[in-house]
Design goal:
Helix content is 20%, strand content 29%. The chain is built from five helices and ten strands. Strands 1, 2, 3, 4, 5, 6, 7, 8, 9 and 10 form a ten-stranded mixed beta sheet that branches. It starts with a strand and ends in a 17-residue tail after the last strand.
Length: 262
């Protein structure tokens, strides 16, 4: 009898060619997870995730599911997989779940954090865990600009030109910009995200925070619905998928919100 299993996955995206499995020879998070779970199941396992992440992007809690014909305890899925995973990837939890659950299509909200290291000289050990911005950033200006993006909008100007989503319309619930010493954090929650959407938003907000543009520029870009008018795409290194929200009926494990600075 086939059983569906949901899992939470944490990973450091540096050193991987993104989440999605690709051609042979490309190191991906999905490939590593599937190989580890297949070892535990003693059969081939293919997983589906809540949202694909790009090369260099990290996750505090990616949610995935897979179907299997074998019975293992939750502990066996977690610790068995972790024994066979590279040190940059860790299964946080595992639980049997209804076949009605789908990691991607059942998701109602997704949250990301973009971490900016803001000082005039480059970082060392924070290089692949933050994005370095040497220009002094004004978080208040960035927040004023971000407020224009909240709500349901056509985000054509903020998605990659090669984005394959059928519709550019998304609903952003909040964008919060805060400073913590030398770190500037951009926290953003939406029903779903387009390809490069968070990184494109971060790029615009950083130019505004540095004084290159005025806060109203974010609204002007949004209204143009043209990616070529949308500013630069920020680097991937400071981007973290911090959580995915599902309906209470699925009763997934509730982890505390991660306190990510880097």
């Amino acid at each position: 009898m086939t059983q569906r299993i949901a899992l939470g996955v944490e990973y450091d995206g540096h050193g991987f060619c993104g989440w999605q499995a690709q051609k042979e020879g490309q190191r991906t998070v999905q490939g590593a997870v599937e190989e580890a779970l297949s070892f535990v199941a003693n059969e081939s396992v293919r997983v589906i995730c809540a949202g694909r992440t790009d090369t260099g992007v990290h996750s505090a809690e990616q949610v995935i599911h897979f179907d299997t014909n074998v019975i293992r305890s939750n502990r066996s899925w977690v610790f068995g997989a972790n024994t066979n995973l590279p040190k940059e990837v860790c299964i946080l939890w595992a639980t049997p779940i209804s076949n009605e659950f789908h990691a991607r299509f059942s998701a109602r909200k997704r949250r990301y954090r973009y971490v900016i290291f803001n000082r005039n000289v480059r970082p060392t050990y924070l290089t692949y865990r933050t994005t370095w911005e040497y220009r002094p950033l004004d978080a208040t200006r960035m927040q004023e600009a971000a407020n224009h993006l909240v709500g349901e909008h056509d985000f054509d100007s903020f998605r990659a030109i090669g984005c394959q989503a059928k519709s550019p319309v998304r609903t952003i619930n909040y964008v919060n910009v805060t400073r913590h010493g030398e770190f500037v954090l951009i926290d953003i929650e939406a029903n779903a995200f387009l390809h490069h959407m968070v990184r494109n938003i971060a790029g615009v907000l950083m130019d505004i925070g540095a004084g290159k543009e005025e806060p109203i520029w974010a609204k002007e870009i949004l209204e143009k619905k043209d990616r070529t008018k949308g500013g630069v795409t920020a680097p991937p290194y400071g981007l973290y998928l911090t959580g995915v929200t599902y309906e209470d009926e699925f009763d997934l494990p509730q982890l505390p919100e991660p306190s990510i600075i880097w």
